[in-house]
Amino acid sequence: MKFSLALAAMLIISIPLSGQEVGAEDKLKTLGIDSFTVGDPIRVVRVMEGDTQIVPKVPSRRPSGQPFQAGENWLKDLTFVVKNLSDKEITAFVFRVDFPETGDDIPPGSGAIEGNYPYSKTAWIGRQPAMYVLVHVAQHAVDSLHPAPFDPLDPQSLHPSVMTNLEFVPRDADTTSLPIDILPGHELSVPLAPYNDAIKEGTDSPDRLVGRGKRIPFSAITTCWIFLQNAYFADGTRWSPGVFYKPDPNVPGKYAKWVPITADEFKNPTR
Questions:
Q1: How many independent structural domains does the chain possess?
Q2: How much is the pLDDT for 19?
Q3: N or C: which end of the chain has fewer CB within 10 A?
Q4: Which domain holds residue 82?
């Protein structure tokens, strides 16, 4: 039985190469990062999917972002890189990952207080200093949205949807987490793989914040945003987007209250 050369070529082309996956589950994904301003002491400078650099969306840039093809567990392959743009060491920072499809697609940074807020995951990198933190006293703990503690008197630390049934509790400095020391001009890579399973469990949970956000399966999520929330420095100062702080020496308890300072005071807090 003879095959034509054309038919033989079609058969060869239609057979996947050995070991090569057919991306049936792959979908277009989009990743965004928060806007940055001149003078920010820390910034996300790259986002990688495996060994490939991806182009993230940035709210202040139009147009921006380039969708990329990835499978269901795409977060496991994502890594973002932060750079210390200040002249002093960073000893800890906090980041948050939002999934707008699980809420009402509220624009990042809009300040909106109405609607269903998306599921988000907040995490510390480095060791948290001693401070007063907000904890939830209701049935649904803050950990259902954010597994990490929050700084007091910082409205950017919490979604308005959970600003109820909270109280301040003193917390000792963290002595167990892996310490970091990002020197000026240096970078640190942060993989999202360690948070993948917890995020999947949170988005898929049938008990997740009744009436707060849409329950869509983790496998259907195609968009996430990465935000830097706070950064802590070796001299005791702190940065939140657009604001610098130092501890108030007149308030008992380390970091019981933060005092806003200027950018010049941040560079020289003893002034």
A1: 1
A2: 38
A3: N
A4: 25-267
